[in-house]
Amino acid sequence: MSDRSMPVSAAPDRSDKAISATSGKPKSRQEAASGAIRTLRVLLVGTIILPLLLGAVGGYVSYRASYQRAAAALAEAVAVAEENTTKILDTHVLVAARIDDLLVGKTDAELQAQEETLHERIAQQIADLPQVAAAWVVDADGHELTSARVFPVDRALDHSGREDFRALRDGSIQTFIRALRARSLGGGDFQPYFTVSQRRRAPDGSFRGIIVVAVSGPYFASFYNSLLGGSAHYAASVLHEDATTLARYPETAQPPSPAARPLAMAPAAGRSRDSAPGWWRLRATRWRHIAPTRRAASCRTRRSTGPIPRRR
């Protein structure tokens, strides 16, 4: 019996291939799942962050555009208010000068004797001037001589303690502006006014009394209402150089923040930005002095541009 050599084959078995292929599938599935999770995370973050970022950019652009429009509107409103207020003050000074023309060359006794005639002539002078609420003449002792609204006047009423009377009597100024609240002759309720008082001089230059012309606060309110369109976002004020409010719209409005210091120390014109107290708002203010040689008043307007984050 002879031995025969048997050939040995080393070919791989099909079962080995199957095992190898099966062992690789979990790994590729894990990689695919991991990639999908990363993609979902990126999409999730994008859907949250990207809209917030776009909203912030859009909000800032909108805010800047709104602020620029408000600044332009403020500049225009201040210019118109300055012109109007200057004209009103000039009108009142002119009215006082015309009243003084009626008194020239007459003694106080003669003025008292002609009170009714003077009352009618002064009333006629201011009849077509709605901004003029009243006008009256006070002698050197502080007692009324005649009035445009009242006849006869109360001669027992003493005006010598008034701020404008003392300033014109004891100082060298010729015109004085003063804020007050007084009872309306028409309705009887108290309303805001401010008066433009002018010094009366004798031929030798001595003090003979004052002429007072009252400016109507409601007239200013009506003008500013038409100027600002009745918007609740705007307010306007006419301020004395010592920061006293002479007139404002609306009546409940607070003076702009720069009014906290005397306007005599403020620049002739300017603007500022600050956070409105108690509100998450930005307040823009513009102002300009009027009649600087007379040191009469200053006009200011402001606009809240809308809710913004408060700066820290």
What count of domains describes the coordinates? 2
Rg for CA atoms: 40 Å
CATH superfamily of the largest domain: PAS domain
Fraction of residues in helices?
40-55%
Would you give the CATH topology of the largest domain? Beta-Lactamase
**Intertermini distance:** 108 Å
Order of helices and strands: HHHEEHEEEHEEEEE
Contiguous runs where pLDDT drops below 50 for at least 5 residues: 17-21, 292-298, 303-312
Count helical runs: 5
Major sheet attributes = 5 strands, antiparallel
Mean of pLDDT: 75
The CATH architecture category of the largest domain equals: 2-Layer Sandwich
Structural class: alpha+beta
* SS strand fraction: 25-35%
Number of strands: 10
**Could you say which overall geometry the principal axes of the C-alpha atoms support?**
rod-shaped
Summarize the topology:
Elements: H1 14-103, H2 108-113, H3 115-126, E1 132-139, E2 144-147, H4 163-170, E3 175-183, E4 190-201, E5 207-216, H5 217-228, E6 234-239, E7 245-249, E8 269-275, E9 281-290, E10 297-307
Kindly describe this structure.
With 312 residues, the chain is α+β, with helices and mostly antiparallel strands. The chain folds into two domains: 69-86 and 219-307, Beta-Lactamase; 88-216, PAS domain (Beta-Lactamase). The protein has helices at 14-103, 108-113, 115-126, 163-170, 217-228; strands spanning 132-139, 144-147, 175-183, 190-201, 207-216, 234-239, 245-249, 269-275, 281-290, 297-307. Strands 2-1-5-4-3 form a five-stranded antiparallel β-sheet, with helices on both faces. Helix 1 packs antiparallel against helix 3 (115-126). It is rod-shaped and about 120 Å long. The relative contact order is 0.11. Mean pLDDT is 75; it is low at 17-21, 292-298 and 303-312.
